[in-house]
Fold:
Amino acid sequence: MSDDDFMSDEDFNDESLEETDSEFEDETYDDDRYLKYDKPQRKSYEVEFRVYSDSQIQKAQAEQIEEVSNILGLPSEQCAVLMRHFKWQKERLIEQYLNSQEEVLGAAGLDTNAARTLKIEKVKGFMCDICCNDENGLETFALRCDHRYCVECYTVYLEQKIKEEGESGRIQCPCEGCSTLVDSKAIKLLAPKSVSDRYQVLLNRTYVDDKDNLRWCPAPNCEYAVDCAIGPKQLTTIVPTVVCSCGHHFCFGCGLNDHQPCPCALVKKWIKKCEDDSETANWISANTKECPKCLATIEKNGGCNHMTCRKCKHEFCWVCMGPWSEHGTSWYNCNRFEEKAGVDARDHQAKSRASLERYLHYYNRYANHEQSAKLDKDLYLKTEKKMTLLQSQSGMSWIEVQYLDSASKVLQQCRQTLKWTYAFAFYLERNNLTHIFEDNQKDLEMAVETLSELFERPVEQLASLKVEMMDKTAYVNNRRIILLDDTAKGLLEDKWNFTVDLN
Amino acid sequence: MSSGSLRRITKELTELNENPPSGVTACPISDSDLYKWNVTLTAPKGSLYYGGVFHLNLTLPSEYPFKPPTLNFTTKIYHPNVSNDDKGSMCLGILRAENWKPSCKILAVLEMARGLLLEPNVDDAVETNIADQYKNDRAGFEKTVKQWIKNHAKEK
Ligand SMILES: [Zn+2]
Ligand SMILES: [Zn+2]
Ligand SMILES: [Zn+2]
Ligand SMILES: [Zn+2]
Ligand SMILES: [Zn+2]
Ligand SMILES: [Zn+2]
Structure:
């Protein structure tokens, strides 16, 4: 890593969120500093993205509004309304405005009579149509449409629209049938600070919602937005996983949790299929919880798939229920669905049974990794507790037991990846490249199971396993990178054939 | 409820009494609570609902006129825009919070309700089955409407 890279890394950690010069429009921005692993180049499965805070988003809007305001010679509140109306397509707005000013203003809910400045006024002989108050000296307000109401009513109206209904950019004049929009200047003039603050937050949201290259982090209570240039058309060739500053990994394309290497379209189809077929799947998973040898009930309490029956000591694979002895060797073949040679293609029943079996093969592995990820995590949390104890007994420091934490994180991530490799494989048409994918999947799966198995060791042993665990963690991670890189390249180069259409 | 709210309702009530809309009677249930009204609708000639007398409850929220009134048929009516349950509720047009403006008046709500007796709004129906029947089987629809009027909406 060069000094330069190192510096930018520092910049990011220290002040990226307070950065003053916004780089929203900077297309050439190099995002290497976001890579989790210190690689000199972006991997084929990684995409460029930036994370923005609330205040940065506000600032970016203000700058664009200011720019348009200078060009069109309109007050910035009105430009804000125009920009929102044009979904922030600056060039389109300017072009159309220069063509027919009145039409554009009218369509955006602004009156063409822009000369009059909005202010709170007292009007002789006025009665408010909302509250029917006609006291002398009543403070009143009207937008450019001249529908005048008392300030108190206006304030109540705005507060209700903003605080209760969550409205912002589309609030209209209170008059029935009038579509003149309330702009930010009117809000500032009329609403208390808590309401106008809320208004700003809501407006901010519409900005992100309106722009295709921005998306809110879907993590609960997270207020960051991610900027990524991957458009809907590219989603057949790339799976754009982004990482928010809050730590959440998600897909920029569909907003779901990270689902690499599976393209969004397949994820959608797969989830739908699983919902439709869940009854069958439940039946199967509920019926595979006995030792294949002695039929004793087996309870799974860790993510590891290497099961040993407590009663008869038989070792078997939780997923395929086959003997484990066949799994640890080079001919491990739990991941591959063996198309049955003997199926008579003319026999419709046999065909549909075979297709169900095929689905269940992939579904069970998919569901199992999902389940295992949870169990792994539970186990880690239990282990962590024990480690704290161990720490005080063995004199190991907190730093020294971090290898467990990183091992757990890598396991979670890899199970997530593995889970989606099965949805990917389900829709994958066999060709001469499929075996490379299956080998990568198998290698990752085996590595994950080995690491997962280490987690299940008694706590007393864990300290002595530190080096082994660290090695395995690095290895597992590496296998994941290889698999993702290979599948992403295949997608980009259109080398995978799927049984369904990605568009 | 604010003084503005009461003042506004009182004014609307006066206007309604001075200029009553045709086919509609509307007034608060009691002088002590101006937020609950009894409404009676009769359908205009030419309407499928002609001959029926329909009773409704109009409820004004304490935030009125910043929030819309609610309107419920207490007389059973076979209509695409009225929920076919014991509530007889309506939820369309200005009765929806997002469409309501504080300058809208009770009169507009009453006129809308009466207008729906002349012509149901099938695009915004609560009872989609009834709306489908209205579109595809007008004769069957009319038959049920008449039957229900006979059973529920005849004043003795
Ligand atoms: Zn007022
Ligand atoms: Zn207006
Ligand atoms: Zn986040
Ligand atoms: Zn996606
Ligand atoms: Zn056993
Ligand atoms: Zn297996």
